[in-house]
C-alpha cells in the first residue's frame, strides 16, 4: 500500500478580524498572532475565523489566518513558530506529544499547549451508493482518499485501518472537494475524512443522494478505540441527507492549541472568548450537535499539557483542567 502525501503546510491566508464584543485590553500591548486552521470543506476553516472574530474583540490581538492540511500540519506550524494558535485533535496531539508517529519524525513535539475543546470530530468513511464498497472490509486492496495532507484523517487512517487488518491498495491525500470529485468519477472507491459530524464538504455533496456512510462493527470499533486519543462515536441518522440509520464509528475531540510561551493573561482572554460566546461560534454553518462541548474533554491520564491561562478560563466555565496537566 502507498500513502501519497503532499506538503503539510498550505498557502498562507491573511484576513482582518473585527467584532462587536467590548475589548478587554487590561493594559496589555497589542499582539499580532497567526492562527493555523484548515482547508475549505472542513470544520477548522469555519471555526477558526469565528473564534478569531470573538478573540480579537475580547483581547488585544490582531489575528491573521494560515490555511493548512489540518491537525498535524497545525501542530508543526505552532512548533516552528510560524503560528501561535492552531486547531487539532486530541489523537493527533497525543501522537505529537509522545513522538509516536512518522509525521513527527519520531521525536516529541511539546512546544504547544491545549487550550479548550471545540467539537467532537468523527471518522467519516463514504462510498458511492452503487459502488463496490459496501462495508469497511471492502476497502482492502482498493484506492481511497484520506483528505488533506497533514489533516487528522491522513495521519490517523493508516493506524485505524491497521488496527482491524485492512490494507487499501492506495491512499491518496488531497483537498476535500478534489477527493469527492475523484470518488464521483470512480477514480477512488471511498473517502475517509475526519471532522465535525457531518463534515461540511460531505453534507453539501450528500444532498444529491450519491453517498452512503460506512459503519464499523463492534469488534472494529473496540480495536480502533484502543488507539491513543480515540473514542467510540455514533453518527446520528439525521447527519446527512438521505441517511436512514445511525452509523457506528470512532473519533477524537477537536481542540484549540497555543504556543506554550504565550502570556497567561492573553491565553485566558482568548479561551474566555471561545467559551463565553458560543452563539457566535455556532454561526459557522456547522451542525449544532457537532458543536457540543464536553466538560470532561480531557482525561487526567492524558499526556498533553494545558496552558495555565486556559486552565483559569476552563475552570471558570466548569470544564476539566486537571492540575497534573497544567504547565506553562
Automatic annotation (TrEMBL):
<dbReference type="InterPro" id="IPR006311">
    <property type="entry name" value="TAT_signal"/>
</dbReference>
<dbReference type="Pfam" id="PF16868">
    <property type="entry name" value="NMT1_3"/>
</dbReference>
<keyword id="KW-0732">Signal</keyword>
<protein>
    <recommendedName>
        <fullName>TRAP transporter solute receptor, TAXI family</fullName>
    </recommendedName>
</protein>
<feature type="signal peptide">
    <location>
        <begin position="1"/>
        <end position="26"/>
    </location>
</feature>
<dbReference type="InterPro" id="IPR011852">
    <property type="entry name" value="TRAP_TAXI"/>
</dbReference>
Amino acid at each position: 500500500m502507498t500513502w501519497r502525501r503532499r506538503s503539510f503546510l498550505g498557502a498562507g491566508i491573511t484576513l482582518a478580524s473585527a467584532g462587536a464584543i467590548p475589548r478587554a485590553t487590561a493594559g496589555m500591548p497589542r499582539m499580532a498572532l497567526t492562527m493555523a486552521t484548515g482547508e475549505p470543506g472542513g470544520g477548522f476553516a469555519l471555526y477558526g475565523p469565528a473564534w478569531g472574530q470573538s478573540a480579537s474583540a475580547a483581547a488585544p490581538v490582531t489575528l491573521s489566518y494560515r490555511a493548512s492540511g489540518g491537525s498535524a500540519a497545525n501542530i508543526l506550524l505552532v512548533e516552528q513558530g510560524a503560528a501561535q494558535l492552531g486547531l487539532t485533535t486530541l489523537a493527533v496531539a497525543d501522537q505529537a506529544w509522545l513522538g509516536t508517529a512518522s509525521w513527527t519524525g519520531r521525536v516529541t513535539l511539546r512546544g504547544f499547549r491545549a487550550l479548550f475543546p471545540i467539537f467532537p470530530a468523527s471518522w467519516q468513511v463514504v462510498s458511492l451508493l452503487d459502488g463496490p464498497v459496501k462495508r469497511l472490509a471492502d476497502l482492502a486492496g482498493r484506492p481511497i482518499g484520506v483528505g488533506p495532507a497533514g489533516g487528522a484523517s491522513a495521519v490517523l487512517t493508516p493506524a485505524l485501518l491497521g488496527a482491524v487488518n485492512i490494507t487499501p491498495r492506495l491512499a491518496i491525500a488531497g483537498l476535500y472537494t478534489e477527493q469527492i470529485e475523484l470518488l464521483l468519477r470512480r477514480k477512488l472507491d471511498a473517502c475517509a475524512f475526519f471532522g465535525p459530524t457531518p463534515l461540511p464538504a460531505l453534507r453539501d455533496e450528500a444532498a444529491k443522494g450519491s453517498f452512503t456512510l460506512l459503519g464499523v462493527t463492534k469488534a472494529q470499533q473496540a480495536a480502533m478505540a484502543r488507539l491513543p486519543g480515540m473514542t467510540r462515536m455514533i453518527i446520528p441518522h439525521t447527519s446527512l441527507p438521505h441517511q436512514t440509520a445511525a452509523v457506528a464509528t470512532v473519533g477524537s475531540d477537536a481542540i484549540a492549541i497555543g504556543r506554550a510561551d504565550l502570556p497567561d493573561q492573553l491565553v485566558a482572554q482568548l479561551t474566555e472568548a471561545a467559551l463565553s460566546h458560543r452563539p457566535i461560534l455556532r454561526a459557522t454553518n456547522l451542525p449544532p450537535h457537532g458543536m457540543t462541548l464536553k466538560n470532561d474533554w480531557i482525561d487526567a491520564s492524558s499526556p498533553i499539557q494545558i496552558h495555565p491561562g486556559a486552565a483559569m478560563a476552563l475552570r471558570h466555565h466548569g470544564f476539566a483542567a486537571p492540575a497534573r496537566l497544567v504547565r506553562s
